[in-house]
Amino acid sequence: TTGNISNVGLVNANVSGFQASGVLVGVQNSGTIDKSYSTGSLLVNYFAGGLVGNSYGVISNSYSTVNVIGYNWVVGGLVGLSNGIISNSYSTGNVTGSGGAIGGLVGSQNAGAISDSYSTGNVTGSSVFGGLVGRQSSGTISNSYWYNRSQGLSCYSGGNTGCTSKTSQSYFYIASNAPMNSWDFNTIWQENATGYPTLRKQN
Question: CA-CA distance, 95 to 50, in Å (whole number)?
Fold first, then answer.
């Protein structure tokens, strides 16, 4: 797609494909995806994302709870391959890949930026995998986190810069804790006393 998508949700989807597949969009060549979400399951060979397979555009205020399985490499809970911008977004599904570049939020970040975002699912891969991003070859990560389920993973393969990793789940329920204390809880995020932050108007 090269256009803009807003306020779209796909619920209980069951999607399978060969490559560059997502529950909402396969390849986002440009444009913006905003206030959109997906739930269900995804089974793809490689370049798989719970919301978008490959992204070269902007994704904001969106989430995925999809459980993603990729038979090979570049598999992410929200986006498989990211060359664009991701902000105020999250993924909670489990992510499994047989190859490398397997990440809770993004499989492979090759450019662009990820900010004010998080992932919480289990991440399983054979090589080069991380809790938030599987492989980061370029781009930036800021004010983001992943709930480390005692898996011993870094936020991304090789580091934690710009990303908070904690094994205490309840730590992330409190908006005054970093990095959530820099997020917009007035208009974008909503604090939940017994759960992770959610996006407003999408609960």
Answer: 9
